[in-house]
Write a structure and sequence with these properties.
Length: 378
């Protein structure tokens, strides 16, 4: 009976790094075979063994499904001895036919002084060369192997070897990062997953930076109750409501360290600022009672307060609004005012028209929306 073709799903470079770590056999990654079988050194049966000039013999009964191969005269962790490589199929060695016939069967001649195995779907080459005749031409005496096995970087466990598609990189602040890259520069640990940043957990306040980029969480709630996923250039500039003059900021922030409400007030250029006479009293603000849901009080201006939040003191005051998951970064000044902003939008009770770029172009791309409104005025 013909030999059933089996491969170890591991490329040559991987094998070279493994062979001294596993002197009794490379861990076989093919799920149809038993892992860690001793002497599992014959990758692609004859092909690997013959590269070292060794003899490839079958450890189990010929023709069974679970074929296990080994290279003879092989010491622990060493290449096999220089002997002719012979394939076992009920102790019958098959020779190569003419080189042209080998090509017709989808194979090519390679590996000096070796015999040909029955390979490929339906054992195509094996059936063709069963009569026994050496290959001729420039590579006289070489063995026929299927052409689709020429790529040694393949990781497929089937006869037709396929190349693994490369994973996509992720872009962050103008820099590309490879797949599986871990970024710890934000309050949330980010992991690049094939072109997309994912939230990999919360590392704690010691790593908190201006804003979090978490694409699988809807974190920011606008004044129209529209949920947006934040994206920033590390400065929390989601809003156009910023003024450079620190004496007349476009917003006021009144934090408290004793679980008192924190009010955040924004104003648009040319309009009056929202004022609160008592930071502990949410009824004391000029707009009336403010709550933990952002409220638009002027076109492009909103305010909110929230009682259950975390405050981390340092050279700057970082305030995390838990309910809204809004991370702010506030320089410490006498008024605790700084350079963060809010969201611009069109307050009319319609969520959909908030999903637009600065020039009014409709968009559902969160990154494009937030970048478009990152600087300037509403």
């Amino acid at each position: 009976s013909a030999i059933t073709w089996r491969t170890c799903a591991i490329n040559d470079a991987d094998y070279r790094s493994y062979k001294y770590r596993y002197p009794y056999g490379v861990p076989n990654l093919d799920p149809t075979l038993n892992a860690y079988t001793p002497n599992r050194q014959c990758r692609r049966t004859n092909e690997w063994c013959s590269r070292f000039g060794g003899e490839c013999v079958q450890a189990d009964t010929c023709g069974t499904v679970e074929l296990r191969w080994k290279c003879s005269n092989q010491g622990a962790g060493k290449p096999p001895g220089k002997r002719k490589c012979v394939c076992c199929a009920k102790k019958q060695a098959w020779k190569c036919k003419k080189k042209t016939e080998c090509k017709k069967a989808g194979g090519f001649c390679t590996f000096k002084k070796t015999a040909c195995d029955a390979v490929g779907p339906g054992n195509t080459i094996g059936n063709l060369i069963k009569g026994g005749c050496k290959c001729r031409g420039k590579k006289k005496g070489h063995c026929c192997v299927p052409t689709d096995l020429a790529d040694t970087t393949s990781t497929s466990t089937t006869t037709t070897m396929t190349t693994t598609e490369p994973k996509l990189s992720c872009s962050l602040n103008g820099t590309m990062y490879p797949h599986d890259h871990i970024d710890l520069n934000y309050c949330y640990t980010l992991r690049c997953d094939n072109g997309t940043w994912l939230n990999a957990g919360f590392p704690g306040p010691s790593r908190c930076m201006p804003c979090a980029i978490v694409e699988d969480y809807k974190m920011i709630q606008t004044f129209d109750l529209n949920l947006l996923v934040p994206y920033s250039q590390k400065n929390c500039s989601f809003s156009s409501l910023q003024e450079s003059n620190s004496t007349t900021p476009s917003y006021y922030i009144y934090p408290s360290m004793f679980l008192e409400p924190i009010s955040v007030e924004y104003k648009e250029a040319g309009l009056d600022a929202i004022t609160c006479t008592d930071v502990s009293d949410t009824n004391s603000c000029s707009i009336g009672v403010i709550s933990d849901i952002p409220q638009e009080v002027q076109p492009g201006v909103f305010a909110f307060t929230y009682n259950g939040l975390s405050i981390f003191m340092g050279k700057t005051l970082s305030v995390q609004f838990n309910n809204e998951s809004f991370i702010s970064y506030i320089p410490m000044t006498s008024k605790n005012s700084g350079t963060i902003g809010g969201f611009c939008g069109n307050y009319n009770g319609d969520k959909d028209d908030d999903k637009a770029l600065r020039d009014g172009t409709p968009s559902i791309n969160v990154m494009a929306i937030t970048e478009s409104w990152a600087v300037g005025t509403c």
